[in-house]
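Re: [ENG-882] Designed sequences occasionally contain unexpected residues at chain ends

Forwarding the minimal case from QA. Structure tokens:
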């Protein structure tokens, strides 16, 4: 069967500034992985395809297949010395691990991603890493991480994307119920400093 990866024009332009219609990677006998690697080589950084890969599960891709793709992108990024792409791959691996109930594995990927982003000065990426780490943390730690991410987002003028707002609000609400108002407020203040 032919492997096809479709990335919408709007998504592509918003991420890469490239024009054109729908981008397709089609090749007789190609695996999805090799097709993605070929497109990455044409478009630049191997991690540039990780944003569209984040939607792979929504396109009907099996979790194991998606994990394989992201793991290959990680290897490619490591091989090229591309730390930004490596951080994106680690984010994807963390998300997939959490979906499989592997909380510690997810946290390890996100911590590694955070450590890569700090020296690069990728403040939005740091905020995103903190938010991801919060999804796998105990309530008190999660609130501190979310507060730190919120403070950083306010500083750089990068609000939480609307698509993530519902999960964020739910997580904060659950943490408040778990901790109670005084402990929640204390954890939030601690995270903002």
């Amino acid at each position: 069967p032919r492997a096809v990866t479709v990335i919408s024009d709007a998504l592509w332009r918003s991420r890469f500034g490239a024009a054109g219609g729908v981008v397709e990677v089609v090749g007789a006998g190609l695996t999805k992985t090799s097709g993605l690697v070929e497109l990455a080589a044409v478009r630049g950084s191997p991690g540039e395809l990780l944003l569209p890969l984040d939607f792979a599960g929504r396109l009907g891709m099996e979790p194991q297949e998606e994990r394989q793709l992201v793991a290959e992108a990680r290897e490619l990024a490591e091989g090229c010395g591309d730390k930004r792409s490596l951080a994106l791959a680690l984010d994807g691996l963390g998300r997939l691990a959490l979906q499989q109930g592997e909380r510690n594995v997810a946290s390890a990927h996100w911590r590694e991603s955070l450590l890569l982003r700090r020296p690069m000065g990728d403040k939005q990426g740091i905020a995103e890493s903190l938010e991801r780490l919060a999804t796998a943390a105990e309530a008190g730690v999660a609130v501190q991480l979310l507060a730190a991410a919120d403070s950083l987002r306010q500083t750089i003028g990068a609000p939480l994307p609307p698509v993530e707002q519902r999960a964020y609000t739910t997580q904060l609400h659950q943490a408040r119920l778990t901790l109670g108002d005084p402990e929640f407020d204390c954890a939030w203040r601690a995270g903002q400093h």
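QA comment: On inspection the terminal residues look reasonable. The first helix runs from residue 9 to 16. Proposing we downgrade this to a documentation issue.
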